[in-house]
């Protein structure tokens, strides 16, 4: 899942980005409101984590512009302003959640995951595809009773496919939602990781879980 | 507490009415009294004239004409008129038979100017007498031989009627005055209460103002002209209070914000680091990141404390002779390395012999802040310079740097707490926006003032005006 973190206080930005990446997210960061808006307009982020007091453009103006442009991204506001009016103002402008600094990183992570489930209309934190079981909270994957060890990038890819199970997901979609700007731009990377994933989750003699749809992309589970 | 306005106004009005009534009553009384008495006296004199005209002197014989003696006025026993006539030597020549054995007093007087006197006779009777000295007509025999003798005549009549009339008049005046005073107290009370109603209304509105809601203003519609300035001043005061409270509230919110953000930084750095096993290098990095944040927080808290102390005028001043040129050089030292790295040129143009009387510690805090800002915001390969300008009783120290991208409007806010030039916020958080606010207060404590300006070409200058000698 790909996140945009707009926070101008560098120590916080860096530690959050590190933590979120370690949790398997692709994270783009910026400390400038204007730049943040450009990022948000140019990519389909699953969740945008937004500070309110920003140079360039303040967070609420950014949010207003984003919604005015019809973007439906989930936005989590992160700010030191904690009055009721501030919170109501933020939510009324189209934010989905609100977290007051200082906050627990675990709580931020939990809220981001909740927003992601909402993005993909999935209330259950556990997804089942045939006999594959994915726990979105602990990020662990089982095949029947056997746990499968995945790297963060492999897990991110599987999670994205699982949240859209049954649909054909294009390489571009995968690229946009699983990788961040800093990654080397190559659609070949997606194919390579799909290969790694197949090896780990599919068992010989059983029907394949990931189907290749020629010219369109991949589908996890039963083809539509 | 002074007596209430209401009591004072009522007392004033009633006293004035009392004074007016007294003067008026005394005036009326004396006019009526003198009119009554002069009428009475005139009738006494006319009787005296008739009596005097009827006196006939024949040698030693002095006689009154018999018709005159029969006048009804002299005969009426209920309201008698008495007379008594004396010779020049004091012997009684004639007197009214009604007097019997008693005598009237002998009064001086002349036909032109008779004398009058009120007599207290026995048994509560009051009489008024007129003295009338005259020269009688002589009988035909004596007319050629003798000088006419001078005679004295006193005529008296009971004046109880007049006195009772006057007594009645006194009562009427007294009672009327009393009634008028009572009425005036009542009217004054009502009028004053009515007149003071707007004051009560304003007092009620003021009492309703809560410290939590200073946005209310005193409406007090239809206040009289005299109270309008009071209402306006009160509303001005409320506006100022509201602004001050809002400033405080904003300041508190700003402080909370400024402390929360670095706290969030420390917390997330630690939590992310603890979330899994790390190698030693990563722990070290996390710890030094946290330390850097804490150092910034510490600076900020110290600055806030200093500002609070300066605002409360609790900072002690220690004045001595200071050489600004030396002070600037020593304050520059910590920044010289950083300036060299960014190829920023520094020029201390202060005359080496310049001396001012000031607190060296506070002044060096001011200069360090300004020089630190200058190094932070000057463009690479830019310039920083410090100059002084002397006048009779003050010295101006100006710290200037190139590379300023602020507008004049933004510079006007430069001394506000937590204000940062927009571009500086993206920095690493080393500048918490308190430096210039602290500078302004420090300079204020030193008896001077600070002003900032930006000139064309991006030259940012802070001018400190300090008293040259101790104030």
Characterization of this structure:
The complex is a heterodimer of chains A (224) and B (471). Helix content of chain A is 41%, strand content 22%. By secondary structure, chain A is α/β, with parallel strands linked by helices. A 5-stranded parallel beta sheet of chain A has the order 2-1-3-4-5, sandwiched between helices. With 471 residues, chain B is an alpha+beta fold. Chain B has 3 domains: 5-167, Beta-Lactamase (2-Layer Sandwich); 228-310, Helix Hairpins, CATH 1.10.287; 317-467, Histidine kinase-like ATPase, C-terminal domain (Heat Shock Protein 90, 2-Layer Sandwich). Chain B is 50% helix and 18% strand. In chain B, helix 1 runs antiparallel to helix 4 and helix 8 (360-377) packs antiparallel against helix 10 (435-445). Chain B starts with a helix and ends with a strand. Classes of the chains: A alpha/beta (224), B alpha+beta (471).
What does the overall shape of chain B look like? rod-shaped
CATH architecture term of the largest domain in chain B: 2-Layer Sandwich
Determine the number of helices of chain B (DSSP H or I, runs of at least 4 residues): 10
Shape of chain A: elongated
H/E element sequence of chain B: HEEHHEEEEEEHHHEHEEHEEHHEE
Radius of gyration of chain A: 18 Å
Write the layout of secondary structure elements.
The complex is a heterodimer of chains A (224) and B (471).
Chain A lengths: L1 E5 L3 H13 L3 E5 L2 H10 L4 E5 L7 H10 L5 E6 L4 H9 L4 E4 L4 H15 L6 E4 L2 E4 L4 E4 L2 E3 L3 H12 L4 E2 L1 H8 L8 H15 L8 E4 L3 E4 L4
Helix pairs in contact in A: 2-3, 6-8
Chain B lengths: L4 H50 E4 L2 E4 L1 H4 L2 H4 L5 E6 L5 E4 L19 E6 L5 E9 L2 E2 L12 E8 L1 H48 L20 H47 L5 H32 L8 E3 L1 H18 L3 E4 L7 E3 L1 H18 L5 E8 L3 E8 L6 H5 L22 H11 L3 E7 L3 E9 L4
Parallel strand pairs in B: 1-7, 10-12
Antiparallel strand pairs in B: 1-2, 3-4, 3-8, 5-6, 6-8, 9-11, 12-13, 13-15, 14-15
Helix pairs in contact in B: 1-4, 5-6, 6-10, 7-8, 8-10
């Amino acid at each position: 899942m790909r996140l945009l973190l707009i926070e101008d206080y560098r120590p916080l930005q860096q530690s959050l980005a590190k933590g979120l990446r370690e949790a398997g997210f692709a994270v783009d960061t910026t400390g400038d409101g204007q730049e943040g808006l450009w990022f948000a307009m140019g990519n389909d982020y699953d969740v945008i984590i937004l500070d309110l007091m920003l140079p360039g453009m303040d967070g609420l103006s950014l949010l207003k512009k984003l919604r005015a442009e019809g973007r439906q991204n989930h936005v989590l506001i992160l700010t030191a302003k904690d009055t009721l009016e501030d919170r109501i103002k933020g939510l009324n402008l189209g934010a989905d959640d609100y977290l007051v600094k200082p906050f627990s990183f675990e709580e931020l992570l939990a809220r981001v995951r909740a927003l992601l489930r909402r993005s993909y209309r999935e209330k259950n934190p556990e997804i089942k595809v045939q006999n594959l079981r994915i726990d979105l909270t602990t990020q662990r994957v089982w095949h029947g009773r056997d746990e499968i060890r995945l790297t963060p990038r492999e897990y991110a890819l599987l999670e994205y496919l699982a949240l859209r199970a049954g649909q054909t997901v294009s390489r571009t979609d995968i690229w946009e939602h699983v990788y961040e700007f800093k990654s080397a731009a190559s659609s070949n990377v997606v194919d390579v990781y799909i290969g790694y994933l197949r090896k780990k989750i599919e068992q010989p003699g059983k029907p394949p879980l990931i189907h290749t749809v020629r010219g369109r992309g991949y589908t996890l589970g039963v083809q539509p | 507490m002074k007596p209430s306005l209401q009591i004072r106004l009522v007392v004033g009005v009633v006293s004035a009415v009392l004074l007016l009534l007294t003067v008026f009553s005394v005036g009326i009384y004396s006019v009526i009294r003198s009119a009554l008495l002069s009428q009475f006296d005139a009738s006494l004199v006319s009787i005296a004239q008739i009596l005097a005209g009827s006196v006939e002197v024949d040698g030693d014989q002095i006689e009154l004409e018999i018709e005159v003696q029969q006048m009804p006025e002299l005969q009426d026993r209920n309201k008698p008129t008495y007379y008594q006539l004396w010779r020049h030597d004091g012997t009684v020549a004639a007197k009214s038979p009604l007097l019997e054995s008693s005598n009237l007093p002998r009064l001086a007087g002349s036909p032109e100017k008779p004398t009058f006197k009120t007599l207290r006779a026995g048994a509560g009777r009051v009489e008024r007498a007129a003295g009338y000295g005259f020269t009688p007509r002589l009988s035909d025999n004596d007319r050629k031989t003798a000088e006419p003798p001078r005679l004295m005549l006193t005529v008296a009549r009971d004046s109880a009627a007049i006195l009772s009339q006057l007594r009645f008049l006194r009562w009427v005046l007294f009672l009327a005055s009393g009634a008028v005073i009572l009425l005036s107290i009542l009217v004054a009370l009502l009028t004053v209460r009515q007149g003071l109603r707007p004051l009560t209304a304003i007092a009620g509105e003021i009492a309703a103002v809560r410290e939590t809601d200073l946005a209310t203003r005193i409406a007090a519609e239809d206040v009289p002209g005299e109270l309008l300035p009071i209402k306006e001043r009160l509303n001005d005061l409320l506006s100022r209070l509201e602004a001050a409270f809002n400033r405080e509230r904003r300041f508190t919110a700003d402080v909370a914000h400024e402390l929360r953000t670095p706290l969030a930084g420390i917390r997330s750095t630690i939590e992310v680091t603890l979330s899994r096993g790390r190698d030693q290098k990563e722990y070290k990095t996390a710890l030094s990141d946290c330390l850097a944040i804490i150092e910034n927080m510490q600076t900020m808290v110290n600055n806030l404390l200093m500002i609070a102390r300066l605002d409360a005028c609790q900072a002690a001043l220690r004045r001595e002779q200071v050489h600004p040129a030396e002070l600037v050089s020593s304050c520059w030292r910590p920044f010289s390395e950083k300036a060299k790295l960014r190829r920023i040129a520094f020029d201390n143009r202060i005359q080496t012999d310049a001396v001012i009387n000031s607190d060296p510690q506070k002044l060096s805090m001011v200069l360090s802040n300004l020089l630190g800002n200058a190094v932070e915001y000057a463009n690479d390969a830019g310039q920083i310079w410090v100059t002084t300008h002397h006048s009779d009783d003050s010295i101006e120290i100006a710290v200037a740097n190139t590379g300023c991208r602020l507008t004049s409007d933004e510079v006007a806010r430069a001394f506000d707490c937590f204000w940062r030039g927009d571009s500086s916020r993206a920095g690493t958080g080393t500048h918490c926006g308190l430096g210039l606010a602290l500078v302004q207060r420090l300079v204020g404590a030193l008896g001077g003032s600070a002003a900032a300006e930006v000139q064309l070409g991006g030259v940012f200058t802070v001018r400190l005006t300090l008293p040259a000698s101790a104030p």
